[in-house]
Batch of 3 targets.
Target 1
Amino acid sequence: MKKLLLICFLLGGFLTGVKAQNAADLKWSAICSGKMNAEWYGSDEAKTIADNVISGQKTNGGWMKNIEWHKLTASELKAQQNARSEHSCLDNAATTMEMRFLAKVWQKTQIEKYKESFTKALNMIFKAEKGCGGWSQYWPLDGNGGYRDYITFNDDLITNVMRLLQEIAAGKGDFANMADDAARQHCKDAVARAIDVIIKCQVDDNGTKAAWCAQHDTVKFQPAVGRPHELPSISGSESASLLSYLMTIENPSEELQQAIHSAVAWLDAHKIDGKAVEDFTNANGEKDRRVIDKAGSAVWGRFIQLGGETGRKTYESFFNMLKSRGKSRSYTTGGKTYTYTEYEIASKSYDPEKEYQPIYAIYDDNLQHLYYRFLYTFEDAPEATDWKGCQVPTSLNALRRVNYQFMGSWPLNVIKNEYPAWKQRIEAQNASQGYKTYALSGETNTSGSSSEYGFNGGIKVTNGNGKGYANGKSSTVKYSANVIYTVQLPAGMKIDKVDFYGYDNYDTDAYISHFNGSDFSATDYVFPAKDGDNMTYVTHTFTAATPIENSFSFKLGSKQCCLILTLYEKDSSAGITIPVVANSAASSVYDLQGMRAGNNSRGMLVIRDTNGVTRKIMR
């Protein structure tokens, strides 16, 4: 009896601790992204929130940003309903979040009004698309030529819209049956136009394609000013987010591939190496940020000043815009009032010698004489007397450092992890002409954490050591050392070659010690040791003399590696042409070497190309 009571007590305690997620504890973005239990989106609570969302929908189709629809008081909801005639917003994921929420609720309830509201918002996005492609912060436009009318990458606006349209076009999951064929095709076409304008907006840095500004004009596609502290420049933050998105595009054109390659190279060349941004409490007891030394890290400015002739033209255009606008800003201190035109604030504070350095500005309605004033120091520096005799800052202050991300490591993961993985995928894709390819990666995994890993195409990976499935960085899969892994192929599949792409997860060199019946030394197929958080991504390719059927095995030596395996199967419907490479310094190097495989002796053709990729062909 006592045991029964104890079991009941423990079970009751367990059940009490397992509570459904409370919507009020989450942000609106989390609600819209599906953080609640799937069944909750069909609940009365979800329907009540959806009704409120519909009641506050703008008459032109969208919603305003930064509204926590699931937490509004009666008076706050009434204020939104009374503002329905105002413009819609796409900034800070506004409208796209509400559409995602309504789609989830409709899928669970099939109540038509939720789908109708979704469709109204989708039509607004169609109308808001610019003639050249892309979107601005608001619809309808202000029409005054200000930053709200520009092509806007700021706060991931365009990428949020493009991701949504792509998912609607695919018509799966939350968006199954949410749009008809014509609307889905419109979504595809809008995404294609947006990619085109993204390529057009890529900044030409004196003959080198660089990255992007937070916003661009719609005629020449030049970097443009945003708010008074968002100066024309190249944005480390927005460019990193944009690259992350662009690298998800399936079958990118050659032009888009080159845009990505050049943007990554430019950002890598303009990093401030060995640095990181740290939050701290300063001597005044204020929350603050500072730049610290950190090995393996790097930082970029949110706004990086352009240089050379490109910089001269960009800033001359910006200054002339301010001059033609003719606005003045005044500041009173010590009984004296100083009045400045925006033109002279910007043009006199700009220093062309500071090209490619981070630039800052202070945006404070109480200090309007600082609008558009170029600052070049992140941490506190002494004030200086300007050309009018007024004492002005030469650096950011703690409030601006904390309230706005002027410095950050945004491109670091893109450069170190996302780009190498994308580059490998594109190289494999480009090399796969005449082949069907099957990638065994985190993205194509179809199983849980058991020791049998399932992947798209019916391919499985098993091991006899009970090693469970786990992901590494950049969609790689973790494979332990000294474990035989068997790749099981579905009936009829014949594999002609296999790429092993990835990195060593430890600080000692790892290598492929076995593949398909052949053993190798620690110097044949090396994955270099990791240096702190820095990984070296390597590709090793095996080409079989005869197609592999049923299965093949492999084993790693020394340490665990994080890998994507790409299997190539000749496509019988396409002829395969082997290109003839001219004899030049840029050509691949070919040599023959012996290879031991148990008691068998075989020949191997070793190919090392100019990118350091090693390809070995079994003979």
Target 2
Amino acid sequence: MRRASSSRAVRIAFPFVAGAVALGVGYLLSESLSGYFVFLAVSAVVAAIAILGLGIVTGSAGMIALCQLTFAAVGAWVVSLLNVLQAPGGFVVWLVLGAVAAGVVGVLVGLPALRLRGVNLAVVTLGFAAAADVTLVQIQFPGATDGIPVLRPDAFSDDRSYFFFSVLVLVVCGIAVYFLQSGRWGSSWKSVAFSERGTASVGASVRGAKLTAFAVSATLAGISGGLIAGQVGLPFASSFTPIQSLALYVLAVMSGAYLIDMAVFGGILWVAVPELLKRWGIPQDWAFVIFGVLGVQALTSGSNLGQGIRNAWWKRQARKTPPRPAVPLDADDALGAVEAADTGAPVLVVEGLGVAFGQVKALDGVSLVVPERSIVGLIGPNGAGKSTFTDAVTGFLPQHTGSVSLDGRPLQGLSPAKRARLGLRRTFQQDRVPPTLTIEAYVRFVARRRLTLGELEETLAFFGCPPARTRLQSVDVGTRRLVEVAANVLSRPRVLILDEPAAGLSHEEHVELGERLRRVPARFGMSIVLIEHDLDLVRSVCGSITVLDFGQVLASGPQERVLANPAVVKAYMGETEML
């Protein structure tokens, strides 16, 4: 426990230490670089801030945004306008207001992202960038035609001190992004990029995750645009063209800009590549071609520079971290689920559930009652309707007949996220656990409540999961399933639907999982609906079983009676095996 607390303190202190080092390096560079290289250094810092924003919306949230420099233009335009109006507060206040304005525009542009994704979203954002570019050429920036330069802060009026000021702004942005990425917003961005269904199933807002990603990204772009206005004095539309936004996006993808250090590296490349081409007598526009080639390589290989470096580090750390042994089970830890079955009041009641896809009835009048603190098995052959049942009950198939209620409250019309917040959780057959998170970050995101480190560690150990600091990317699919179960259990739901949780586990792990699942209802005060093909696991934990076949209830009741039912045996084994 002491080691975990120390590790957490180190993670909190790290960005401030790194920021102090960056400020020291920035000061030394401001004193040692010549005037021309100071200007280039400011450009690199400004680009790094814009790329840092792209790292959020693209690298973390997985959305394509090709208008980052358009958001920067908004920030520069607001700073230029406030400068012409001689608004109170000076450059720093103007910079903040420009960032806020860009963030608002980012939310408006991000609204299509709620329905669009991939190439369609790319077209929308690129179209916005093109329209904004035409508009800027026509109206120009405030003060540009009259030659009114943007006034820098008094303490940072010369180029060298302004470079240090830009480094200071970059450090503040980097620290803010570090804590955002480490918190619930960051987890929601990474979760929605990996699986929108998985995000909604834990009660998180998919809309909120996408809009906050766009807002923060645009805000950072607005800051970079305001710094450009202070750098050049008279900003022009040529600094914010769509082709430059496209090149910046490609550079962000190539460098892995969701990592702060890689965003800084991307900013350096943004300046260094054109400068080298210039010195070699090659037109600087060829830099866009180079960025494009590097971006295509990153997209086709599914990896980028930053990800490659971090993956090598995580794998080395994973070899140093032995898996955690599971907590031994006490004989008096809790009553087994089989003995405690059907003794509580109904908590989840499904009546006459029906789902049709055209003329095909996937579910036809299915009813199920889940008593409090019990484990109910839901089994059936492939295609029986188990997954359709789960989707309908948890809100992913809202168009159905019949009714679903939780603790007596009807759930009709509620979204999956709202049902999850009320206490109806589920897991998935497919892997929905974002690999870019640590186990601790994922568990805290899924739990949606304050967890002490002790509670988190104890539950992970109970399910035999690796230590909390382990990267999910470094564990196998079977282990991620256990982490998914542990995280949902820690949310303390009223009912948790486990959809084949033992998939990917060995026989010994099946047995261990069954032993622990039997103790979950009494230990954590919840009910479980277990969907499984492994009948040995079902027998070991389920007091009652409902069998589906061709979308209808074939049998329902105590497990001994149901599993001995000839119709159930026939559905599973076939008539030949019964003879």
Target 3
Amino acid sequence: MRQIKIQLPVIASIIITLGCLIGISFWFDNNTEKLIEKSVKKSLEQTCRSQASVFKTRLEDQMSMLKSMSLLFDSVDMNDKEQRRTAVQSFRASETFSAIYIADKNGDCISASDMEINIADQDFFKNSMNNQFIISKAILPGNGYNESLIVSVPVRKKREITGVLFGVFSDIKLNLFIEGFNFNEDSSSILVSSDGMIIARTDKSKLITSKIVNFFDLGTSWGLDGEMTVENIKAEFKSQQPVIIPYQSGTQKRMAILAPVAIEGWYYALITPQTIITDMSTTISSQLIAVETSISLAFLLLIFSTVFLLRSNNEIQRTNEKFRIATKQTQTIVFDYDFYKDKLELSGDTEFLCKNGNDKLQGKEIEELLNQVHTDDISFIRDLDNLRSNDASSFNREVRIRCTDNNYYWFKFIGTVVRSENGNAHRFVGNLVNVDEVMNKEQLLKQKAEEDPLTGILNKATFRERIENVLSESNDNGIYAFYIIDLDNFKKVNDTMGHIIGDKVLLDTAKKLCMVFSDKDFVGRVGGDEFAAFLKLQAVDITTGEKILQAKAKSICSRLNEIYTDGNVKINVSSSIGVAIYPQHGTKYADLFRHADEALYVSKNNGKNQFHIYSRQEMQ
């Protein structure tokens, strides 16, 4: 009797739950299609809003990039056309913009590719000169009647706006910009202005031909049954709210999902066939029926176990999905290497690193993966091998690896060594994260900080730092020569022909010095018209070394001896050179600089356009 009482609640719960399942099944049969259609439309709307937000964010990123670029013009004389040309040409390579221009207060522009136009009458120029950051459409001079998307920022110098820096998206670039957000291969993405004009579209569109230039020309009728008019749709546009508009193009039923971009009344639109809802409804309905049947049978057999397993399974799926999304977004791989079995297991986004996304490697396959490490980072492999023998518990390095697209990317390699009780390395576990963008930005900033802004060679501080590093690591087996090069008559050039010709002389000097010295040597600008070079000679004797450094000095004198003119005045510019040799004339940077400078003045006093090697006897 007691057993029956214990079972009654269980039996009652089974009967009640089974009845609920049957009732829910009948209700779903009658309402599934409407629910799915509503859900799919809601999902598409959210997708469109998300993509509109991403598109706006990417445009704002380009704006931020231009703002950063504009800071580099604070030392540029915007009235000096050559200075503007030199500065903007440092941005010649751009993956996003078709062209980058710098304009002075008068609207005179020079592009990174040396194109010259005037934009004084353009609204975006006037607004940017009024301290506004602008994203707009405009027809640029010399561009026919083709509109371009413009992103422009003001350029300031000591709080005064001295010009405008702007980037241009051509139709091709902008279409590629849109291409990355396409919903699926059967849909199309477009960018629409407030008056319905199509600004950009996916190139591989099956739904919108290139002949259609206005959104309102897409449909032959609007609404589910033609109940909407173009005027109704234009009114919807003015609301700047997300909207789903069904329409018919010929015999094809389609749907436009639009979300505002919050830029000049633009809309981001997804165009997709109406059949996507029908197909998804059929698929989901079939799946629901199968799931309902499976759950009902499972519930009758093992109600408590099924509930527990379903909850556990759902939790695992959610965790795996979060992991998959997170690793895909950041290009992260989690690894687990077994030292004893020589077996490597990978999880996460492995497709960009391993062919066919292979996530289990062993023996030769691991060697092939290590061969993808950049030759300049080969010490990384040696440090990995040393983990077997040393007592390190962690590992943290940045390394360049060639990925499946055959390009090298920077990765941060972080791992922990798991050791057995006797201290032997058993496993190595960690993750590999793509940090290429961060590393490239850091290297670019470092390069900008190390270069002389006019000539592009090393500045004084970096030149000294590089030499001091070499001298601190020297084992006295090499011969080093320190050159100081001073330009003769340079002040006369500036005073007579102006700084434009003067800057040209300095640029020519830097280029010619770089032609004399190799990439392993250092060339820098240490003063207004004073340059320096550091020659590194390995495995040569003193006699051979002196012959080489003298030949270099003669070559400098020959190359830098040139006549400059502005059309009226001619001035001969030459060079006086002082040379100090390591270690005979000093083992520190300061000693070599001082002795080379003393030798330089001997060259000056002896008639210029010559070189002199430091000699203690002559200086006493």
